[in-house]
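QA checklist item 7 of 12: single-chain prediction sanity check.
[x] sequence parsed
[x] length recorded as 369
[x] structure emitted
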Amino acid sequence: MCIRDRGIRIILKTNKMRTVAIAIISVLCVASFAAKIESTATLNVRDRLDKIRDDDFGKKILDTIALQIKRNEPLAEVSKLMNNIRLDLQNEQRKQNAEHSQKSRECAQQLATYNERISLNTQEITQLSFTVSNLQSRLQGLFSSVDTRENQTKLLGAREQFLRNEQQADQADFAARLQQINSVIEALDLILPRLRNIRGDGDEQEALLQLAKIGKANPINSLLQVAVTLDPRSLVIILEKLEQLRESLGGASEENRDALSEAEQDFLRLTGELTNVRRSLSEDLSRDRTETETVQYQLQNYRRNLEDTNNELRSATQNREITHAECERYEASYRVGTERRNHQLELIANIQNILATHIETISDYVRKL
């Protein structure tokens, strides 16, 4: 491959010279190959350094190395600087890892606490809502019951007043009838004895003259004057009729008294029953009103508790969202920081490798910065 010169071919005509030539050519070839390898490696290192310099952190490190090399600092100091930077990054990552573990536990604990509060509040809201609904139904039933009992009480009062008015009217009617009956009886008691003493067949003209004199002032005397003119048979018939009337009126008076007494007993019985019903209604109404006040008080308290629990649920939900967002932001920041430090550690390791294997190349590279 390397034999191209004609002068060398001439030398190779002898065996001894050929051996020497081969040895020389081999050395030249190895040297040429090594030079090519060294040149390629140098180019690769420079490419690596260019990529490192494209990074802000890498640029700062190379600028620091350049400054130390330009100051003729020992290679050991440069290596020490790289080790210190690497250790600082590793210590910072360990610190961040510890803080991340602590923060993760705190986030998990806080979120678990909020979730528990939300679960308890949700259960309590369900129970309170059920209780409020039952109390509202109960209160509505009590309102209806109170209205019904109040209306029934008014109707009973009106019924009792109607019975009292009716009883007073019956008493007034009875008094009027009894007065009429007694007046007729009194008149008959006056007339009948006198009629019994009349013989009849009296002078008709004389009777008319007496009636004219009596006029309307005394109807009983007028009746007697008329009776004088009657024949005895007619007079007997009239007496019988009047006596029957007297007897009938006496019986009617007793019947009216009995009817009035029975009506008064019925009135007392009905008013007594109404009084008992009204008393029972009054007790039920009082009990319903007391229970209504109790249920209203309970409903007010349960509604207030329901409102407080809803506020607590909203607060716990909002705080959980805030905490979750904060933890997510911290987690994202931790990941970014970790990735950045890992990248910086890779750059440090790459630079340390170049320092260890290509010190001249890197020295020449940074001197040109």
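[x] summary fact logged: Confidence is low (pLDDT under 50) at residues 1-13, 27-39, 201-217.
[ ] second reviewer sign-off
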